[in-house]
Amino acid sequence: MIGGLFLVHPYHAEMYSFREGGVYFSGSLFLALLAVKMLTESDSVKFRKIYAIALLVSSLSIYQLSINYALIALVFSICERVINDPNIENGIHDWRRTFKDVVSMFTVALASIVVYVVVNKIVLATSGQVALERTHLMAVTAIPRRLAELPSTFHWILFSNQEILPASEKKILFLIPLIALLSVVFFYVKKKGELVQPFFIFGIVALTLLTCLLLVLGIQLPLQALTRESRTISAISLFLAGSLMIVIKTQPMFFRRWLAKGLPILFVIFAGNANHALTDQLRVNARDQAKANRIFSALEGHPAYSTLNKLVVIGGSWNYSATIYTAEGDLNASAFSAAWARTALIEEVSGHRFEWVQPDEYASAQNFCDSAPKWPDRNSYSIRNGLGVVCLGDGVNP
After folding, report:
1. H or E stretch including 314?
2. 310-314 sheet: strands from edge to edge
3. For the segment 319-334, what is each residue's pLDDT rounded down to a tens digit?
4. pLDDT for 183-237, tens place per residue?
5. Cβ–Cβ contacts within 10 Å for residue 283, how many?
6. Pairing between strand 381-384 and 310-314?
7. Spatial separation of the C-alpha atoms in residues 329 and 48, rounded to whole Å
8. Based on the number of CB atoms within 10 Å of its own CB, is 203 exposed (0-12), middle (13-18) or buried (19 or more)?
9. Could you give the CA distance from residue 244 to residue 181 in angstroms, rounded to a whole number?
């Protein structure tokens, strides 16, 4: 049940809408969670911390947001160790060891992030690549603004309506951490009705849930941009799965049976949401294909078509006037929104091979489109000296 809630959460649909995104995401997540397992269950493994750092650095090198999953898994593993301690009912627990483990685990995580940042800067410096602006750390003066953003951000995550995850379903999901909080109180009540450490354990679970909720944003918190996209906050799926773990660990068998009957219904709904998003991707693909055909058909009618061997497409939009409601961020965006994809799309649809465009040719195409009318105007495209130029508008795709 726990794994199912994590795996079928519709926020993962965006990653799997990319051709290779699922491979990168799954590979990075596997390495991150393997590092967590190494830190929490492999006391006998020599140099386990070094192995964990290597795994986390490798994971970060593939997909940086995987560190959010790793940190959430670490926090829940510590909480699970505390509530599973048979002596905790009597108020006995080795808190010194727990604190030592917490410091050790998060030192490894921090060291992994530092090593990754250093390696990344070396790679960027030697390759001449430039880091995206959204990956830059925010200024210290921006901290109050970031703190002010958090309430509305978490309200969006937990309660706001999205086509891929409606508000009604979010409210049902929010019951899981709430039940987890109540569960620990009832779990630590003796049969005679005497309370034994319940509110202390309640505080531990509450701190665990609040920490993990912050870690849903995780690595985004210190960055300039706090992105509200399902892909960037998909670690909420692990937060919900961890909350469910607490419920299962602290509830009697009859309650678990009811969960086993009810949760599959939620899983089916989730699968339907994800299928809705992926079906919409096929609709976007069909629209892009039709538009690419219209563009190439226009080029075929140009007097200089026989000389066409290069193509530059300037401009483009991420959506169409007939709305795709699951379009959000990079999910179900038109291929014409990405400069590197436009020519490749037309090449794929038409079967016409285009040669690589030189920088001066691209600059010439840009100059032409600065003053030319926009597609589908008959003067929005041109072929000169074998170079085809198509000028799309930056508004909604026609």
Report:
1. strand 310-314
2. 310-314, 387-391, 381-384
3. 888 888 888 877 888 8
4. 776 665 554 445 456 667 778 888 999 999 999 999 888 888 888 888 888 999 9
5. 14
6. unpaired
7. 38
8. exposed
9. 11
